[in-house]
Amino acid sequence: MTRAVNSLLLHPYALQTEQRSEPLGIGERHPRLSWKLHSDRRGAAQSAYRITVAERAADLDDPTRLVWDGGRQESGVSLLVPWDGPTLKSALRYHWRVEVWDETGTTGGTAQSWFETGLLHQDDWSAVWVGRDPVSLPHFDPPQDDDPESSALQSPPLQLRRAFDVRSQPVRARLYATARGVYEPHLNGSRIGAAELSPGWTEYHRRLQYQTYDVTDLVTEGCNVLAAIVADGWWCGYIGFDPRRAAQHYGDGPAFLAQLVIDFADGSRQVVATDAAWTEQPGAIRAADLLMGQIVDARRHTPGWDAPTPGLTGFRPVAVLHTEHGPLVAEPDNPIRVTRDLPATAVHQQGPGRYIVDFGQNMVGRVQLTVRNAEPGQRIVLRHAEVLNDGELYLDNLRRARAADVYTTGGGDKEVFEPQFTFHGFRYVEVDHYPGELTAIDVTARVLHSDTPWTGHFECSDPTVNQLQSNIAWGQRGNFLAVPTDCPQRDERLGWLADAQIFAPTASRNADVSAFFARWMRDVVDGQDPDGAFRDVAPIVTLDREAAPAWGDAGVIIPWHLWRTYGDLRALDHSFEAMAAWVEHIRRHNPDLRWRNRTGNSYGDWLQVGVNTPRDLLATAYFARSTQIVAEAAEVLGRLDASAEYRTLHAAIRSAFIESYVHDDGTVEGGTQAGYLLALAFGLLPQRLVEAAIGHLSADIEKRNTTLTTGFVGTALLCPVLADHGRADLAYALLHQHEYPSWGHSIRHGATTIWERWDGWTSHSGFQSAAMNSFNHYSLGSVGDWLFGRVAGIDQTPGSVAYGELLLRPLPGGRLTWARAEQETARGRVACGWSLADGVITVTATVPPGATAVVEIPTVDSSSVQESSSPAASRPGVLGVQPTPAGATLRLASGHYTISAIAPELTSLAPQ
Ligand code: BGC
Asked: Is the pTM of this model over 0.85?
């Protein structure tokens, strides 16, 4: 086959199956396939593709051995291409290849990948649930901990094992496993895989995820041992602020379900599944709880417990708990993993054997501690805190989360302690009763989160703004853990809906959160009641009540966002009935279209500063917004009658809003910043009053010495609305503000994550009430979307999906002399940046193959616009240049561009 010169090629890369790369054990019978495209040539686009699938990679070259040959399809589509091949078999690896042709019909590159199905049929499972036989418990002494909370901890985690013989070396072995609790699987003395806190947290009554592991290399001929530790986790430990353990929500003790499937070269198969032949004995882990911490007594470690070890004693038969499997589903997104380690930045000795270690970053995970030459029986306590108070840990804001790990030494030259069934939100750890001298090399912080691929980068000339971006990213890392949580440290850590919808646009800048959110959306939808009301949190614990305005609306906003950002039409389709039912629920109980009834625990503009945005105004604005989205979603899904109906409803809600909350002089009821922002952002003002409303909003900000009053809801809209209505100067002034309340204020006081409250700590009043004062809450970090979208300038046009038509709008302003961002989007790499020097603005833009871009160049002279130092209009890939009042607009085909023009006039730079 002859190929075009390499630089002309169009390359597919980053192949994905169901929005994941090389997923092991998918549950989809009709998985969707995607690839991204790269080319060094301007204007490159895919005109056709061909997908081929085989059971062995080598067979992809043999047309007679293909499972599916999709043939050449004349199409530019590269995202979520539906499976049109034969029905998939269970537990099988499929290799697939995509070949693409460019817009000239020339063959581009090919790329290949694979996915593997999980157990697609319930009767593929022969395993049964096993747990502790209660008679083995008296052999266990309850934890001897001086903290009264520990007595409330459950019995020790299960330590399970099963020995079995294998007659020859297998060609393939897979473990399918899950737990009621959280588990760590082992085989022949090795830990299996790198997933943490599996199976994660879902609405367990409805869905429990199982994981698939490739254990081919761990199984050996002869005697083998499959083993696991299972701790309480979300299943039966403490969760939320409910003083009851989760046992009250889901079930009693932990349990394990696993099936090891071993295939031999002759085509025969051996299955080892959880059953009555398994045995159990508590081990070194004496208690483990997500909120409380983990207690380990190394003296109780049973060497060789997870390997074929002769002479092991004490293991007793398990109890077979249930024979039915419950609602098992394949894990549809990446698991939680340790994604990086942070070294200690300082170790302070506070007293004999007592140290405080600083990791320099508020984060989520656990500490790994090394102990050398200790006597057996030394009890070391690790306590975790986000901040210090007078040089000591500030623990009050953790509320009932004990967040303490206890390690009792077993003795020996070197012991390494790392709790695996808990997580803490901390920057500081106090190590108490440490034997010997603690140095930085003995402590490492291990960062844990749902391993959503990191895809975004933002940077600018201002170090404080860069710190803000870092704080936002760290808030996302720590709080995307199994579900999108409000906070990671106190006795809460719940999937609050408003927090998630407010932050989702920012989250999808930083990382590919498509599969993560699509999965969590199932929990949100599962939580909906027959009247159509969502819940404030998902999964539901503690707070089983109708969702509040802006909280329940997550059930509408997030599926729409996933469609716009990732082109996930199926997620939208699956959510549509639930989205419409939510709007109908509000309409049914509010026939006058002002949302005043059934507002749940109406939180308003939660944690606003010294003002009171009318709750019914906020609610009605969200009612309008959700209805508008449902109308647009209906149109995308081809439900045209529904679309027309919801458009009419939206117009009526808008009129009701104007009638009730908007005055003729452009003031909005309540006069708060959030009120104006909602009205402006959601298009709820008559056009003739927009300018006046912007004037009132700006005046309010200015009269408060350029500070905000907004809470969770209003803050997300603040900078975008100002910048889009001619007040970029004010948006930048708020961004650069460092007096309270502002992002800069928290950074000035050492924040390395986003605080829950603007006044988490102030010089005038110290700490806010410990009853609610998290230092790692991502909601007020929703400005991150604007940093990428306007400050650097990466956005898409209103009708565009998955960045198919980019809107690149660099916005020089404030103190910045340059800014740039890049995002690995579903389609490929997008970048935009600008810099100002010597009276010239230079804008760089990268548009992936198949996409186009509208680029707004701010300049005082539209005729000065050049691309790669030549007049822009004559350059390849430049499809058009149009003068505008603010400069010039260029239309670009795919490619990488460097555009320059005479710099814009910047009227107001923020104070230094
Ligand atoms: C949580 C939130 C949540 C709020 C509801 C708080 O306790 O931390 O972030 O959205 O309650 O008002």
From this structure: yes
